[in-house]
Structures are given as structure tokens and as C-alpha cells.
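Q: C-alpha cells for this one, please.
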Amino acid sequence: HMEELLTIGELAERAGVSVRTVRFYIGEGLLPGPGKRGRGAGYDEEHVQRLRLIRLLSARHLPLAEQRERLQALSTDEIRGLLRFGADVVNGNYVGVIQRRGGRRLAEKTL
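A: Here is the predicted structure, written as C-alpha cells:
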């Protein structure tokens, strides 16, 4: 079955940000755009997860350029894994989930 697609407004609401913020993140290359343009354009659960992680990284004052680099290297499953530690990331108690991909450290306590 096809995954239900969200409008930009629904995506923003689910992630707790404004539509303007979603558009800004897409423009900055932090968040992929919708699968299609115009009518039928939509966002899926991966967009929601990525947007939530962007919010967490922003709460830790990670520069957008660094966020973009880290996000581009992460799979959806890796993003979900990081979000499980979300409260700790926001509270500054992030103790060091280190995930490797291609031999690079992607996430560690310096988040």
C-alpha cells in the first residue's frame, strides 16, 4: 500500500515548526523537497523524522552547514536511532551514541 503523504502544513504541524521553517530547511538543503511538485506533492515519514532531528541539532546550536553534512550521510534508520535519544540530546546529556558509516563518525557526544 502507498504511504500516506502529508501536505507541507501537516508536516510542519507534526514536527512543531512553521511552514516557513520547513521551506527554509528545504532551501538550505537540510530537508529534501517533496517527491512531486504542485498538486499531489507530499512529504512522508522520513521528512518528519529528519525535521525532528534538525530541531534537536538546532537546539544544541549545531551550525546549519554541519547539520547538512551530518544529515546527508544518515539513513532513515540511523535518524530514528538518534531520535530515540532526543531528550538527552536536547538536555545536553547525550552520552555518546556513535554510529559509523563508511568509517566516519557521524554522531557522538559532540552533537
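A few notes: The longest strand covers residues 104-107. The radius of gyration is 14 Å.
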